[in-house]
Amino acid sequence: MKFEPVKKVSSYELIVEQIEAGVREGRLHPGDRLPGERVLMQTFSVSRATVREAMRVLHATGVVHTRAGDPRGPEVLPFRPEALERPLVRMTDQEGTTRVELIQFRLLLESQSALLAAATDNEDAKAKISACAGDLATLADRATTAESQTELREEFGVLLSEFHSAIRAASGNQLLQATGQAVDGALTTIARRRLGDEADGPALAARLRQSALDAATLNNHIQAQDPIGARQSAADNIFRFYKDRLTDEEQQVLAPLVG
């Protein structure tokens, strides 16, 4: 028989594991209150410092809300996308995550978000998507003027993020919203670098016009409640935006998600 090394676990980690298990298994529900600090000390047979460290970790990860001096005890929180966003952002910032992996993930995420957005009956959410598409079109029209090209690139990154965010919100899926937000920052940086490599003037204007046209096409599929068309359009748009700066090998990896 082969034995495995025993992992040393701190007392506060065991408390965290028990409370997280209670939430996961449905024995603790959003709005429930944990016992006060003194009762927790007695229950777990640990010091005040250990209880406080466990509550600090649970608070930081979005499991409970704690407030110093609250006699009611820590409150169990409902799931929030922000709780998932933080570790995903940290992961996408790691050097080991390649740009093709990020684009690959976004192709999957945004295309499915678009499919669900097209299937929804939430008219307010769809109106937000239309407004964002209109803002991109307005920006593309301004690209022919003599205003700062740097400002155009920056504004484009913001508007494009808002457009995709509106689609993810319309999907009604909190996990898609959280994961999309997590990778949005990294991919917006790539997009800005992409535009930063463009020549000013006509080349940049052409790039913005194409992106605005892509957004309009995707919006049309969503407004027409065409889920399959919306999914394909979203994938096509993302792939087209990056394609001419990708290596042949990267394109081969991404191609199955587009075709």
Give an overview in words.
This protein is mainly alpha-helical and 259 residues long. It has two domains: 11-76, Winged helix-like DNA-binding domain superfamily/Winged helix DNA-binding domain (Arc Repressor Mutant, subunit A), CATH 1.10.10; 82-258, GntR ligand-binding domain-like (Four Helix Bundle (Hemerythrin (Met), subunit A)), CATH 1.20.120.530. Helices cover 71% and strands 2% of the residues. It has eleven helices and two strands. The chain has helices at 11-24, 37-44, 48-60, 81-93, 99-119, 123-142, 149-171, 174-196, 202-223, 227-243, 248-258; strands spanning 64-65, 75-76. A two-stranded antiparallel sheet has the order 1-2. Helix 6 (123-142) runs antiparallel to helix 9. It is elongated. The model has no long low-confidence stretch (mean pLDDT 85).
Layout: helices, strands, pairs:
Elements: H1 11-24, H2 37-44, H3 48-60, E1 64-65, E2 75-76, H4 81-93, H5 99-119, H6 123-142, H7 149-171, H8 174-196, H9 202-223, H10 227-243, H11 248-258
Antiparallel strand pairs: 1-2
Helix pairs in contact: 1-3, 2-3, 4-8, 5-7, 5-8, 5-9, 5-10, 5-11, 6-7, 6-9, 7-8, 9-10, 10-11
